[in-house]
Amino acid sequence: MPEPPPLLTEKLIQSLEALCAQPSVVGQSDDLTATADLIAAQLHALGMQVRIVPGPPPVVLARRNGRSEQTLLLYHRFDAPPPGPWRAWSHEPYQLAERDGALYGRGVAEGKGPFAAHVHAAHALIQTFGELPCGLVFVVDGGGLLGSPSLGQTLDEHPDFCAADACLGSTGERDADGAPLCYSGSKGLLQVQLSARGPAHPLPAGAAPALRNPLWRLTWALSNIKGEDEDIRIPGFYEEVDGPTRDENTALRQIKLDEPGRLASWGADHFLFGMSGVALVRAEVTLPTCNLSSIHCQPESNLAQLPSAATAVLDFQLVPRQSPDALAKLLRDHLDDRGFQDVHIERLPGGYPPARTNAQNRFVRQVSAAGAAVFGTMLPIVPSGPFALPLQLFVERMTCPVASVGLARTDSSPYGPDEHIALVELLNHGRLLIELALAMAK
């Protein structure tokens, strides 16, 4: 195999600085469009064919063939969580800052950072060899945090341009030694909004004995979906869920997480039910979830009043054999059976089924083996993790294997203030792609 080329650190930082300076808060159309243009320009500079699909949200596609016939698709997202109060940051969130070997800014650990690392890995390969060892396709999603609502149609409209032999994501956790985990799949996603209506307009609190309070109504409906014991109470929810296979159990028992580091960085004292070790790993990998993301009433006020409406947003992360369509119907039937016909369910845009590739698949093994040259050890292979990615959209259209290797660390704070990542980790993320591209070209 040829000697891997070095990455140009200064160019990587300059590229990431430009990306971080352009806000791309989830759902902000103008900012997302401007970010898509910036991403397209960086990919065009690699000599790639580039297309911007406006969406909304926009998706940027880029393709360049390589020396071999093999083509690797790289899935990235560029929408980002809001920065929150700027006073909580040590540096301005949209101005890349470097301190003690780490880079700070919104998107550096998830989204823009992994993308920049892969762009400059491709640049290093082209600069060294004059061409890519294997073809590369970039799919950069402006709606990743919304469930990728425009991605499926984008892939359907550009099938030949996006065609690839394998797909790699850039999301995931690390083990206790700091090595990224290699995921051979990802959980699926369903997002819904529940709403309950009350009076035509807010009323004084004294009306409570006479009229139904929509906030209470919604709260009671939610309590019928998930209980205090964390059990999801929708009949049939677990019916299609299989436990891990013998081989998967063996792999899961070998995973060690940095549990003290997690708890410290998350500001928590313990995990649910005191879980630890393999029980925690198995729960994150094999269990579906039901998460309450937000709950609001209209109008939002601290006044004593009877609100006119209440809404809540739920997200479900799904495991193999679970279907977003089937679950949406189970949820509606369950609330109807429990007497909540008046609670409206709106399925939010986006969502997708779970994805799973056999851990013995050649591509998955290549991703794992690429870690040996970068991290000194083969990356541990895990069936899926505590995240959802739209990898199944690629599987359905290309019948290709998928994997994901993350960049962020437990304390990187991609949703909070002071999001950061060590510069060396960015470089390693790029080096992993270089090793993988060279291996795929053999």
UniProtKB/TrEMBL annotation:
A molecular function GO annotation: metal ion binding
GO BP annotation list: lysine biosynthetic process via diaminopimelate; proteolysis
The Peptidase M20 dimerisation domain, residue ranges: 185-339
One Pfam family from the record: M20_dimer
GO cellular component: cytosol
SUPFAM superfamilies named in the record: Zn-dependent exopeptidases
Keywords assigned by UniProt, alphabetized: Hydrolase, Metal-binding, Protease
Name of the protein in its database record: M20/M25/M40 family metallo-hydrolase
Lineage of the species this protein comes from: Bacteria, Bacillati, Chloroflexota, Chloroflexia, Chloroflexales
